[in-house]
Amino acid sequence: MTETVNGGQPAAGQRTGLTMRRVFSTEGVHPYDEVTWERRDVVQTNWKTGETVFEQRGVEFPDFWSVNASTIVTTKYFRGAVGSDAREWSLRQIIDRVVKTYTKAGIEHGYFAADVDAEIFEHELTWLLVHQYFSFNSPVWFNVGTPSPQQVSACFILSVDDSMDSILNWYKEEGFIFKGGSGAGLNLSRIRSSKELLSSGGTASGPVSFMRGADASAGTIKSGGATRRAAKMVVLDVDHPDIEEFVMTKAREEDKIRALRDAGFDMDLGGADITSVQYQNANNSVRVSDEFMRAVEDGTDFGLRARKTGEVIERVDARDLFRKIATAAWECADPGLQYDDTINDWHTNPETGRITASNPCSEYMSLDNSSCNLASLNLLKFLKDDDTFDAELFSQAVEVIITAMDISICFADFPTEPIGQTTRDYRQLGIGYANLGALLMAMGLGYDSEGGRTMAATITSLMTGTSYRRSAELAAIVGPYNGYARNAEAHQRVMRKHQAANDAVRPLSISDAQVHKLATAEWAQVVELGKTNGYRNAQASVLAPTGTIGFMMDCDTTGIEPDFSLVKFKKLVGGGSMQIVNQTIPRALKKLGYVEEQIEAIVAYIAEHGHVVDAPGLRQEHYEVFDTAMGQRSLKPMGHVRMMAACQPFLSGAISKTVNLPEDATVEDIEEVYLQSWKLGLKATAIYRDNCKVGQPLSDGKAEKKSDDAAVAEAAPAVVEKVVYAPTRKRLPKSRVSRTTSFTVGGAEGYMTSGAHDDGTLGEIFLKLGKQGSTLAGVMDAFSIAVSIGLQYGVPLETYVSKFTNLRFEPAGLTDDPDVRMAQSLMDYVFRRLALDYLPYEQREALGIYSAEERQRYLETGSYELVGETGSAAELIEVEPVRPEVKMEILPVAEPKAEVKEAHTSAELMEKITGTAVDSPLCFTCGTKMRPAGSCYVCEGCGSTSGCS
């Protein structure tokens, strides 16, 4: 008899360990020996500043790993100080430290029948990781096998009670979780509302007031510094008396952001002044009940309840409150909704406690003070040459991965003891997948189609069914989870619900029928084995954003998401990058019956236009296969909702995904998404309306469209009593060309940074003086802001130059600038320098401002002007004499190169091709535009995420 992991003894007749099958690896050959390894140099640059932010040369990866994947693993997951001998330099090292730790723990805790089974487990896991079939979540790569605490979980749920001790403990626990690079969520509904009394006789502060302190803490810690920013979820029940205040918190702050932006402050995400607003570090969700949603449908009132007694202290119009929720989401994308009764109807541990909250990305939903470690499979790896899904191979991979995930709980460390105890007692796991969008496209299935949804549903069902079957098998060997006995009936009931949902699926093709057949067999075993053995894990599956690890696996799409766009930005070995068309598109076209010549023509059209509309030879009934998250044929909001609804019944947890709506969507559209999500059985829904946040800049394409619309409006006949001129501010692009000039005037040293618009005109200046006191520093900052705002509202630079040159005050005298040898003041020098840098010769001539080269030319020729000169000194270039016909041949080649050079990610590339904005923040690490991934954002350049998984 072997001792079980949880301290009990296996029942009579139980096996003493797993007998592992060798499926992926080859007997007698180590997985590393089956691939070709190569050395690479990883150099990461901030595209915005040009600064090298990371460099490690000679790292080792398999030759089939992309440059992007190797860059992200090197920068994010290699441990040890850069430049030291202790620094990891090979993918083999990080896989070994993780896999060998898992194998050792499996042996110590009695998971394997014999040493040979442990060796097979090690080789199978290594093979799957090397070949990018799956990946563990980021904390595993950060921590496992290192001297750091062995934290393996990315997702945490905390709890807070109605006491000051509990509230302050919440702040502390959240801080430790952020410091470790993870995220946390909690429900604040136990805290008394601002409409209730304290025992001392005063009025309670209410949960919203305590959110301010937690938000400030999260913004300060920024979740581990270099790994990711703080991620958190705050939930409030819809029957809490402070629900309206909670709903409007972020919407009010968005109004404040707009006012500060219009006053000239930098309120873009990551901007210098955005920290002055509150509640920006959390996602907010309202936990709604079926009772409330039925009241919305019926148009009746709804009771808000006191936290201590449960009595109704106020009644509100349900539709009016629902409209306020949708309006706030329309204004700022928060709050999302979590459907409480649906969540708890699928809860395997109701005897222990209700599920009240989720992690920041909303995919993990379980008991308070618990955690979940995640792993995701790369679905495209299981697509066979005949374009069918290899269900059996997929199931075998799930077996190995879910076993490893459960083993990790045996040795894992946790940020708090309550979280550790709950996790060890309930052993929640979160297996999921990525690349669904790419898989469906390669199979010739539309994302928003019955065929696409059926395939996704059957794959999800097979994944969770296999996981729980293996969980029941593990329970026979090392025992069920500690909380199983008191929840056995409820857990088995939920397994039957999953089985019934699987039986309700109706396959549409041979391909999904094969997957469904295997899933049906798995669920039959789950139910039968569970009756005898119980289950090792309270939860098994979620669908996470898979941001960073998605790039590690070279996935085209993240989580459950559709393809982001049909064109991609690809880094090249040895440096540089290029625009490519998704490699799944030719495969999809071949699957749909197109011949090679047609495929080449369609791909060329997509490369130029970024979409398939009017592509030569492409039939309209096939357009839906190539629908994407953005672009000419972007998916409709309900297309996202229906896909989530197809997969939700086969997940233990929920789905991290945001439903994107166009900018012109109405509040009623958002209400409909929220209402239909409830009716279709989703556990949570988040929405995002394009350009609803100030931090998301409009693209030039949209600005031009608005100008055209305005022109049409002006052309229409109208009666105008009074015309008032309203100046329009032309904001600088997020990434702009700038120059920094150091100078000395009369012994006073300083620096001037000037930024320009895309057309080269000056748009901002910043002045810093050496050894300056706080008063002078403030004056110079204020002066810089005033001039910058004036420039952006259209005040000509020539006007500033004429007003500020020749001003006399100290310091004054000699400068170190050959173009401006003497200056009568700092202002005199600054605006003479700006004139030389940004004004054309004709304007400078009228002001009497010349460069040193122009003055020398006057001494030699009697004229300041160079024959043929038409612009500023900065614009002058030497031009070789070229025949006109040669010029016309080379210009079309040069222009696309210049365009591609300006884009650094697929998001930026799509903005250039389509002229529409991608509503994503800029990466804090490398400065490129991130792209949506579930409820979060991920950077294609460096792998940084705004989320927690």
TrEMBL record:
It catalyses: a 2'-deoxyribonucleoside 5'-diphosphate + [thioredoxin]-disulfide + H2O = a ribonucleoside 5'-diphosphate + [thioredoxin]-dithiol. Residues 41-132 form the Ribonucleotide reductase class II vitamin B12-dependent N-terminal domain. InterPro entries: RdRp_reductase_class-2, RNR_2_N, RNR_lg_C, RNR_NrdJ/NrdZ, TSCPD_dom. It holds the Pfam family Ribonuc_red_2_N. Belongs to the ribonucleoside diphosphate reductase class-2 family. Its EC number is 1.17.4.1. Residues 153-688 form the Ribonucleotide reductase large subunit C-terminal domain. This is Vitamin B12-dependent ribonucleotide reductase. Its cofactor is adenosylcob(III)alamin. Residues 733-837 form the TSCPD domain. The keyword Cytoplasm does not apply. Keywords: Cobalamin, Cobalt, Disulfide bond, DNA synthesis, Nucleotide-binding, Oxidoreductase. SUPFAM superfamilies: PFL-like glycyl radical enzymes. Catalyzes the reduction of ribonucleotides to deoxyribonucleotides. May function to provide a pool of deoxyribonucleotide precursors for DNA repair during oxygen limitation and/or for immediate growth after restoration of oxygen.
